[in-house]
Amino acid sequence: MENSVIQTPETTNKGFWDGYNNVGIGVVAIASVLNHIGSLSVPKALLIIPMIVHRPTLAYMASKVTLERGSAALASGHPQLFVNFNERFESNLPLSVNSIQLLVHLGYAKLGEELVRKRRLTIDQGLGQRAKKIDLASDKISELLLEPEEELYLNFRVQL
User: Fold this and answer.
1) Of 44, 67, 138, 146, which is most buried, counting CB atoms within 10 Å of its CB?
2) pLDDT one-digit tens code per residue, 38-51
3) Does residue 11 belong to any structural domain of this protein?
4) Is residue 6 in a domain?
5) What residues does 132 pair with on adjacent strands?
6) What is the 3-state secondary structure (H, E, C) of 50-84?
7) What is the rounded distance in angstroms from the CA atom of residue 35 to the CA atom of residue 119?
8) Domains in the chain: how many in total?
């Protein structure tokens, strides 16, 4: 048997899809932000999942003691949260797009010039602890997403 077919920890691409970060979590994340701000551009929506799939960033944003800050202050004050943001952005792009599509298909959002909330997604204990944590973080994430897209992409070092 050829070595390239055998999956070992060294050859498995763990940065791609592992089942833990799935379309359900993506829907919860984007819908939670839409619950706060009602609408957002697609480029801004694509920034949500890379933030919530990174445990330290999610924990920081969900913390009750975290102050709402702008993207520049956040990226410079906590560079460890954004050191690999571009990689997370790129690897989660399919998940982000699929989550947006599912939100639209399920009738929670409408996609036109922007992604617009049609109805609220209720986040409760039935969706699990991770969904509740994402919902807590969504308030601060929605505040960040009020900034211009260009500024967000620059501060988070997303390479287009």
Assistant:
1) 138
2) 999 999 999 999 99
3) no
4) no
5) none
6) HHHCCHHHHHHHHCCCCCCCCHHHHHHHCHHHCCC
7) 8
8) 1
